[in-house]
Amino acid sequence: MRRMLGLILTILLGGWGFAPARAERLTLKRAYELALVHNPLLKAARSEVAAARSGVSEARGAFLPRVDLRLVYARTDSPVQVFSYKLAQENFKAEDFYLDRLNHPVDYTNWQTQVVVTQPIFNQGREIIGYRRARIALSQAENYLRAVRQRVLFETERAYLRVLLARERVGVMKEAVRTARENLRVVERRYREGRALKSDLLEAQVFLSRQEKDLAAARHRLEVALSGLSLVLGEPLERRFEPVPVEGVPGPPGDFDKWRCAALRMRPDLKVEEQRVRLARLAVKEARFRFLPSLNLKGIYEKNAEDPLSGGADGDAYTIMAEVNLNLFRGFSDRARLSRAEAEWLAARERLRQYRREVEHQVREAYSRYLTALKEYEVTRRAVAQAEEGLRIIRQRYEAGLALLVELQDAETALKRARLMRLEALYGLRLAESGLRFAAGLMDTKRIDATEACHEKP
Predict the structure, then answer these.
(1) Domain ranges of the chain
(2) For the domain 29-64+124-292+327-455, what is the CATH code?
(3) Cα–Cα distances in Å, from 306 out to 76, 111, 158, 311, 318?
(4) Left if phi > 0, otherwise alpha if psi is -120 to 50, otherwise beta: which for 391?
(5) What is the per-residue pLDDT across 228-271, written as a single tens digit (0 to 9) for each?
(6) Would you give the DSSP letter of residue 70?
(7) pTM score, two decimals?
(8) How does 119-142 read in b/e, with b if 16+ C-beta sit within 10 Å?
(9) E-assigned strands of 289-371?
(10) Considering only CA atoms, which of 442, 26, 409 is closest in space to residue 208?
(11) Residues 6+ positions from 452 with CB-CB distance below 8 Å
């Protein structure tokens, strides 16, 4: 009855979509493509580039004429205003010169419509500086996008390799569990034959339990690694992938100077720092422009009417003017602003100098890590062959009664450790190669040689 209920529940749950989803095969290239499309950080960086482009258009608009429409309704009995409105409406008559009308006019209405055109010529460099600042901000946003792209690609490859490593660890632990079970069967047979102690049987059972515990921990790490890969790719965390193993082993990295040269020319985050220095230098120029005059041209066309709807008296006029403003004294604030801008420019230059040193240090560290990982891989590969041969010899000796159970378990543990070390060394080597490309600013789907990148135009 219970089996029947379980079968019915399985069919129902499967029909309603509760069956576990099958993992999707995933190549590293496909992982790159998914991350570049769906990663939220990249989407945010692209939006910042779009905003910076709009900022350039906004700054360019400061050079164009400004056109304003002004509408004013007024009703007054002020002698000056009434006199002015009648003149503007071309409605002034001889009787309006009577003193009583001049001094005590009746309430008067004026509807004024103005079209004002202002053409900026030079406003202490605000238009020029604003446009240059917007262009630098756009360049910064584009380089920041490239930096985020590099980071996302590196994180994608690292998460991809972590899944592969975690899956290989599960395989090693499964093999360790299988070997422990085989040894337990050997101990059980020897115990039944009277050639092994009860303590040997108990020890073999405990050893198998430890291997099974390690296998459960390895499966947990694999689950976490799969979730981390989905996170980097910008996919739902419950979506599961089956990464395809990466073939081959990275070779020697080449000359260090080429990697350092490539980093100093290609790192997008370094370019962002360089552009911050340009912005600081632009702020100095802006502070100096504050001592210069400003010049604007303005044209005004206006129409004044007593009642525009009934077609009463009205008049129109135009005015063309040039306006010049010269800063004579502002309480020494302009001089202080210039001093501050110069100090901030010097500080930005020193920060850039330090950042270049940090970039060089990162490349040196990544290069050294790669060389170390390459040596570790060669060492661990030989260690696995030695551990396998050692286990074979100890197993034969134990079956012949010439070795203790603890010696057999030590040999199995040594083989498991050697295999894990080889896996960690292999994926550590691949991750070190990715880290070196990332440190040099060459983390991309199309791999660029450091020598070529060093000679490319930055």
Answers:
(1) 29-64+124-292+327-455
(2) 1.20.1600.10
(3) 12, 6, 78, 9, 18
(4) alpha
(5) 999 999 888 888 888 888 776 777 777 888 899 889 988 999 99
(6) E
(7) 0.77
(8) ebeebbbbbbbbbbbbbbbbbbbb
(9) 294-305, 314-325
(10) 409
(11) none
